[in-house]
Specification:
The complex is a heterodimer.
Chain A lengths: L2 E5 L2 E3 L5 E8 L8 E6 L5 E7 L5 E3 L7 E6 L4 E6 L8 E8 L7 E4 L3 E5 L2
Parallel strand pairs in A: 2-11
Antiparallel strand pairs in A: 1-3, 3-8, 4-5, 4-9, 5-6, 7-8, 9-10, 9-11
Chain B lengths: L8 E4 L5 E6 L10 E6 L6 E4 L13 E6 L2 E6 L8 E9 L4 E4 L3 E5 L1
The chains are: A mainly beta, B mainly beta.
């Protein structure tokens, strides 16, 4: 079974940094593109970033220049480095696998990790 | 103005049918596949419909999707209490160079 387990969330002050990790198992990690998606309290799902198997990277405008997505295929892990954090970055962050077929589609999600940006 | 527009809520009684709409534009729905997700609070979202109208294995045929032009719909028939959840459409947007989610529809089964 596909498993995605996020970690690294917590409380951080505005302007601070945090690094999220996602441990993947149950599939050949290197063959799949990966995403980060977040949900702020009381809000809907918001796509954050997408990293293809060919190392193409996409970011939502709201995080461009502040967040960096990366992966380590040897460790079956996905990362999200978050810098210059703002109050509005407070959310549950989900690691999510792309389906592996042409075009974009998320077919599996982790349980999420909570990030709180507050002074 | 959201990129993808969904009704914020819908209420139905058990056994009834509901349709949730998702309205977009040519840069997203008009030229790309639409996918639908079910999200219960505190859990991982679940893929419900992919490529406009395809169901992943394990998803009951009570759930169906369709697309026409720049709009898409999710229909749920024979509603049950366990269908009470938030439902999101999602699609790649060429203008934004990234995927977008609809605002979500909170379905209440009375």
């Amino acid at each position: 079974d596909v498993q995605l387990v996020e970690s690294g969330g917590g409380l951080v002050q505005p302007g601070g940094s945090l690094r999220l990790s996602c441990a993947a198992s149950g599939f050949t990690f290197s063959r799949f593109a990966m995403n980060w998606v977040r949900q702020a309290p009381g809000k809907g799902l918001e796509w954050v970033s997408y990293l293809t198997t060919g190392s193409e990277i996409f970011y939502a405008d709201s995080v461009k220049g502040r967040f960096t997505i990366s992966r380590d295929n040897a460790k079956n892990s996905l990362y999200l480095q978050m810098n210059s954090l703002r109050d509005e970055d407070t959310a549950v962050y989900y690691c999510a696998r792309d389906w592996g077929s042409p075009g974009w589609c998320i077919d599996n999600w982790g349980q999420g990790t909570l990030v709180i940006v507050s002074s | 103005q959201p990129v993808l527009t969904q009704p914020p809520s819908a209420s139905v009684t058990p056994g009834q049918r509901v349709t949730i709409s998702c309205s977009g534009s040519n840069s997203n729905i008009g030229n790309n596949y639409v996918h639908w997700y079910q999200h219960l609070p505190g859990t991982a979202p679940k893929l419900l419909i992919y490529r406009n109208d395809q169901r992943p294995s394990g998803v009951p045929d009570r759930f169906s999707g369709s697309k026409s032009g720049t709009s898409a719909s999710l229909a749920i028939s024979g509603l049950r209490s366990e269908d009470e959840a938030d439902y999101y459409c999602a699609v790649w947007d060429a203008s934004l160079s990234g995927p977008v989610f609809g605002g979500g529809t909170k379905l209440t089964v009375l």
